[in-house]
Amino acid sequence: xxxxxxxxxxxxxxxxxxxMGALRSMLEKAGPWLLSLCxxxxxxxxxxxxxxxxxxxxxxxxxxxxxRAGVEAGASxxxxxxxxxxxxxxxxxxxxxxxxxxTASLVTILGTASLALSLSLQGSLQNFAGxxxxxxxxxxxxxxxxxxxxxxxxxxxxxxxxxTLLTADNRRITIPNGTxxxxxxxxxxxxxxRRLDLLVGIGYQADIKAxxxxxxxxxxxxxxxxxxxxxxxxxxxxxxxxxxxxxxxxTAAGDYWKAKWDLLEIIKLSFDEAGIEIPFSQxxxxxxx
Length: 289
Prior knowledge:
CATH class of the largest domain: Mainly Alpha
Distance between the termini: 118 Å
Strand order of the largest sheet: 4-3-2-1-5
Number of strands: 8
CATH architecture of the largest domain: Orthogonal Bundle
Helix content: 40-55%
Largest sheet: 5 strands, antiparallel
Number of domains: 3
Low-confidence stretches: none
């Protein structure tokens, strides 16, 4: 006998007068149902208390695991809440089944509602999943400079749906996380040091050895170039109108642009003092009279 049958049985009492015999007979019929209902409620209460303890243990275990894995605080909090909600949902279904309810209908209703919701929020869910992926995998962090097809700049915020970048000229770029998760992202400042590559052209009539010495001296004497890293100067290519010289050194990631701009100015001034010409594109026009 189910819960609905028992309630129907209790409502079948006479409305005008209470017949003690009929009441006794009704209670005798309802007795087993009441006993069954009490037993089911007791079992459901025990299942709830045990399930609550198990969910608390799983939540603490997940929290320690995320902490050891170095998961971001925002992602850790979200994942723990998601795990807790899912486990409590399973616990509710277990209790409903224990009370004799039809869980198949509940599953069907929830499945239909979830499908409709996922179809209507497809783009947002993609960005949401991308945000969770970025917070867990951590291809870049807040404060780092990244380059992606949607733009480049310093990461100021990684949200669950959007990531915000600040450009060098203080513009803010908001990029959907779904786009970032499916794009190639270059983390420029992920490492402490960056290699500085310079490419300078000199004329074919210029002294290559003297130019290479100027390049090497400029890099070695610059305060932002690392002393414990190799400095390389070489002939990169023989162009149509210039000999291309390359120079490589290492600098701190934060000093990259300052070091590059300083060195380009120093090299140009040093070449001028040494009489080394840097070719440039030009056109000779001959007028025939």
